[in-house]
Amino acid sequence: MAMLTSRQLRIAKAVVFILCLLPLTYIVYAALTENLGTDPVKSLIHITGEWAIRLFVLTMAISPMRAWLGWGWALRFRRMLGLYTWFYATIHLLIVTTYIFAWDWQLAKIELAERAYIFVGFAAWVLMMPLGLTSNNRAVRALRKNWGRLHMLVYPAVLLAWLHIAWQVRSSYFDAVLYAVLIICLLFQRFQKLKKRL
Amino acid sequence: MLIRTPSDILSSEITPESVYLKRRQFMQGLGLGATALGMGLPATGFAASEDPRKSLSFSPVVANADNPFYTDEKTPSFAEASSYNNFYEFGTDKTDPAKNSHTLTTDPWSVQVEGAVAKPGSYPLEDIMKLMTLEERIYRLRCVEAWSMVIPWVGFSLADFIKMFEPTSDAKYVEFTTLYRRNEMKGQRSAFSTIDWPYTEGLRMDEAMNSLAFMSVGMYGKTLPNQNGAPIRLVVPWKYGFKSIKSIVKMRFTSVRPKTSWQSIAPNEYGFYANVNPEVSHPRWSQAYERRLPSSLLSPSRIKTEMFNGYGEQVAGLYKDMNLRRNY
Lengths: 198, 328
Hints:
The complex is a heterodimer.
Chain A: H1 6-32, H2 40-60, H3 62-69, H4 78-100, H5 105-114, H6 116-133, H7 137-143, H8 145-150, H9 154-166, H10 174-197
Helix pairs in contact in A: 1-2, 1-4, 2-4, 2-9, 4-6, 5-6, 6-9, 9-10
Chain B: H1 17-29, H2 34-37, E1 41-42, E2 57-58, H3 78-81, H4 96-100, E3 110-115, E4 121-124, H5 125-131, E5 135-142, E6 147-157, H6 158-164, E7 173-178, E8 200-204, H7 205-208, E9 214-219, E10 222-223, E11 233-235, E12 248-254, H8 261-265, E13 289-292, E14 302-304, H9 312-315
Parallel strand pairs in B: 3-12, 6-13
Antiparallel strand pairs in B: 1-2, 3-4, 5-6, 6-9, 7-8, 7-12, 9-10, 9-11, 13-14
């Protein structure tokens, strides 16, 4: 399947759109039916954080899919996946701000200064902001060459997101190792491309 | 000490847990605290077919605001208290211990007592249960992860237990060890674990002899579920939850301060004392607030954390000449 017809593409996009909404649907359903467990705040923080990093890795897997598997069509879904990454990261941040910091800026400031894992997580979200805001076609056209340069920010953002996970390791290295392996694989393809250019 | 297996219980004796709790409150309301009468109140709960918990006979706690062993704060349901646990021997997720701990066999069980004591040896749990008088205590449990619960424990005073072994003057500390049994404890088989099994904890002797320090063999009137540390665990309510070591198989009395599991993993995060202290924040969590569980999204029950988890009157004296910022 090298190319999609515009009709197939529209259907496929709708399917991906709905798939990406499923975690949110689950969260809202579980919250309304009080199925988030004894500590719903913690469950919400974990679920939204996990989906943000999963979608982030998936977004970054598009280029290697194209390069290694020849899945050119995958590029058509990258913007949506990237925006959903930012969307889940934003919900994650909002839940932390509401339930952990209770919108107490003083406390939030102390937490950001004292806890490196919170700082890098927040920094990753900040770096995603310009990417999300310039994801529309008009911005892509207006920025021209600079658009690509600006979107190089995904690399520091994904590394900060990984640090956010790794710094929280307490009893198990599993998540930190899993995402390290995935991110290294995804970055490997970029290095190959870079080497070819040089 | 009365242990009845579910099959011994007639259906006519079965009381729903809620009714049992109400009846208990009613008795206490009448000032019939069984402690005062010197008698144990047989507690019969409903015997669900797979529920391996056995009813215990114990003195209910005296419901008095001045009683440090009692609090009128809301307790979670038994289901909540037994489905949200940190017991990494059975997995790192809060729901893992409830899912995975059914593999643990707790009978036979004995506690090995070693070191600076006149009476070392292996003490079978049945003997311990015969020698100790069971009582109830309702304690706040504050986890280092900034959540807390109020739990009605059943057990006996750690000080009374320790006196049985006649510690010598060399006994300055007591080290506790959790069971290490890879084939029954899934988490111990994990290749990704940061913990060097078995899990160990420790107390200074004067802390262990404090009247709040408690050995629990039950909660909610029955024996402990595996995920809550069956068949015998420590409860030190003025310290973060990880000090309250579960499924204890060994107690070693020593003159040297033992190294605890969490100290070995991250010495800058977890100190030996681990007293609840809202002023000393943990690198991962501010300790100024806690979520009292169960909470909901509409009422997150975010409350201020109290020094020594509110037990300062009983334990502050233990640390009066110490810098608690350095000795966290």
